[in-house]
Design brief:
The complex is a heterodimer of chains A (301) and B (480). By secondary structure, chain A is α/β, with parallel strands linked by helices. Helices cover 34% and strands 29% of the residues of chain A. The model of chain B is unreliable at 473-480 (pLDDT under 50). The chains are: A alpha/beta (301), B alpha/beta (480). The complex binds flavin-adenine dinucleotide (FAD) (2 copies), iron/sulfur cluster (2 copies) and FE2/S2 (inorganic) cluster.
Chain lengths: 301, 480
Amino acid sequence: MKVSKMPDFEIVTREDFSDVTYLLEVRHPLMAKAAKPGQFVIVMLHENGERIPLTIADFDREKGTITLVIQAVGKTTRQMQQECQVGTSLYALVGPMGIPSPVSHAKKVVCVGGGLGVAPIYPQARAFKEAGAYVIGVVGFRNKDLVFWDKKFRAVCDEFIICTDDGSAGIKGLVTAGIAQAVEKHADIDEVIAIGPPIMMKGCAEATRPLKIKTMVSLNPVMVDGTGMCGGCRVKIGDQVKFACVDGPDFDGHLVDFDDLLMRLRRYTKEERMALDHWEHEKGCRLQKKISSAVKESARK
Amino acid sequence: MPEQPAAVRARNFEEVACGYHPDDALRESERCLMCPDQPCVSGCPVGINIPGFIQKINQKDLRGAYDILTETSLLPAICGRVCPQENQCEGKCTVGDSLEPVAIGRLERFVGDTAIREGWANIPYIEPSGFKVGIIGSGPAGMACAADMAKAGCDVTVFEAFHQPGGVLKYGIPDFRLPNSVIDAEINNLRKLGVKFQCNTLVGRLFTVEQMTTEMGFDAVFVGVGAGYPTMLGIPGDSLNGVLSANELLTRCNLMRAKEFPNFDTPQPIGKRVAVVGAGNTAMDAMRVSLRLGAEKVYCIYRRSRKEAPARAEEVHHAEEEGVEFHWLTNPVAVLDNGSGGVRGMRCVRMELGEPDESGRRRPVPVPGSEFDFEVDLIVYAIGTNANPIMGQTSKLKLNKWGYIDTDANLATSMAGVFAGGDIVTGAATVIMAMGAGRKAAASMKAYLGIRDPQHPYHSGEDTLFGIDLAEKNFVRVRA
Ligand SMILES: Cc1cc2nc3c(=O)[nH]c(=O)nc-3n(C[C@H](O)[C@H](O)[C@H](O)COP(=O)(O)OP(=O)(O)OC[C@H]3O[C@@H](n4cnc5c(N)ncnc54)[C@H](O)[C@@H]3O)c2cc1C
Ligand SMILES: Cc1cc2nc3c(=O)[nH]c(=O)nc-3n(C[C@H](O)[C@H](O)[C@H](O)COP(=O)(O)OP(=O)(O)OC[C@H]3O[C@@H](n4cnc5c(N)ncnc54)[C@H](O)[C@@H]3O)c2cc1C
Ligand code: SF4
Ligand code: SF4
Ligand code: FES
């Protein structure tokens, strides 16, 4: 059914950080007012689309916009990369969802972001800075061409460490190398906040476990509604089962069963592949049609 | 009533029961005895004037029948389809003592469908009252409250978290039982009354109930957010891929249209052999959806016996006809791992019925040593739901110990001007109960706002002033 008039979720800015990472700034004044660090939205690109969760990477209360930073990994995120241009609109955008990250009274924190976690760690770093903490930022990229937002981070971090796989920028190694550097220099770190691919968050939690430094992670299981209604996002935290969308998405990294999360993320691998192939096939067909009609057209002339 | 043959329908999403032909309806209406004491009416949670509307059908005055129905029920085409009539109106029907009871639900559906087809809607002349009312949740409770408040002249906005309105009617109950076109028609009638729907709005997080009653200027608010938080069994293997809640299966299939994947992006791969745990309406829907998505074998696993199954009798019967295999008195104890994160099977234990428990039903107890394994690759839990935590997390609304919203007998909550009803107050119930609660809350809301119903004239007596009840909370309110 066509739902009467929906608010228009217009894309007002777009920026491409690399061939896989892009930023969208979307107009939603109410959400810009309500959003807090650690929360996420659910987006539908079009009426037939899937509901996909994305972290609110930034918000501008004056301008009335929220910012999403997206990695093109599968059908939906690739199609968005292609179709979400300035002036177009998303079909659906709901949020802010999840419990805001608790900005504790920690005096010294390390904010770690890797891959798709680099953007969402930014509002947390800023919030800790605003709360008066000493903030050490650690971000990880494959190489220096993929680095983005370093100026933004430097503005809110007392120390900032970039890690690259090949050493082309900052230190060579994974974000855990950055954490190691930070803990070596500072014996009084109260808390580590890590956002990124599950395997990275697992690494961070393992790195801090022996040091007994509280480590918060933001979990990203597959979601449908994001309102606590389907249970698809369930995660194991200690001996309990929690729904990441309403009980999280932030949890104590030392209690998270990451292997369970990793396994559950593979739930739809086959179908994800099918969706992507189907879309690329359709795209090919449309292109083919365009070409053949152009050929016909020119033949007619 | 004509139905699609089981073998055909079990593989499509078209409606199972095709509905009455006018002649069938006429014939059925003749079976009603017009009992003066109207036992059927006492069985209907909202007290529809059943003999009244049946008599109009009998007089071939369908418009008249529709008018009588809509005095009480907002959604005849929906309730006629999904009410558990055998426990309600039809369960009390005098004819049922010796023969099949009068098919009240089917007649109601017939009138409701006719109204949709003919485009009837009872849109009264509405005088604006100047009050602004906010409704949270667009399920049957929210829809009913919205309709009554709009008719009372209020400016009504319904906020819905999903991208489409309708609540469980849309995301839960499948098309073959309740087609989307029927829900959309009823929602359009609400729009004609001036009700605005705002989807993609998660109340509590985007703005709070407190904000609604203060800065957003809502004079009264109704909370009808349902109780959709699914329960998992808590047995070993619960988190394996291939174990999911019925809500997830149904939402993927109905709302997100996974049945049309990959033309729609949301997938729902179905196993060859599917076990559904539970025997309520949700379980029946999950089984029948699994069949339609292509499962070869679908099993129903239920720890009590058929007699205790909470689903509508018709749904159990339909599921049986379509080839679902029922395993009564069977309880799962573990999900078996296939070694790569998926499901290989299920370990169950046989049960027997012991002493009655608090619910009055005989408590099932495991038979020692009766454990057995069987092969399945998808397991669906339909074992009940709990209150959703978002309203509690984000407001001062008083909750009871199970997390449901606490209300008084008039459905007023602990916050002035905020009312609640439907599943979020009672726990999972029925469409007609939720609708009844929405209407009851609307009546309380009108009293609170000081909106008088022309049908209930001013009265005189000790506790009144100028004919207005002093107990009316909003006694001093002057209309804007
Ligand atoms: C709370 C939350 C916040 C998120 N924030 C962001 C964000 O800010 N930016 C961003 O780019 N992505 C974020 N994600 C992940 C994002 O939702 C997925 O990348 C997206 O759903 C993939 O959709 P797709 O159709 O493009 O790919 P699919 O075809 O569905 O999947 C392609 C690949 O992505 C992986 N994948 C699928 N779903 C997820 C998931 N939920 N998390 C991680 N990997 C997944 C699959 O394993 C597969 O390998 C977040 C997820 C959650 C739950
Ligand atoms: C699969 C299934 C089959 C059923 N079959 C039958 C049947 O045959 N007969 C029968 O009588 N009953 C049946 N029921 C039960 C019946 O559907 C429910 O009792 C009824 O829908 C409850 O109505 P409600 O208005 O209280 O809530 P719901 O219908 O649950 O609607 C609540 C709405 O509120 C929205 N919402 C939740 N939180 C928020 C928020 N914070 N902000 C905004 N919106 C929010 C939800 O998205 C939802 O749309 C069935 C239930 C299920 C799940
Ligand atoms: S609303 Fe339900 S219970 Fe009442 S008369 Fe109609 S079918 Fe029967
Ligand atoms: S009890 Fe049955 S026969 Fe009697 S009035 Fe009601 S529907 Fe008709
Ligand atoms: S996404 Fe459905 S319960 Fe969390």
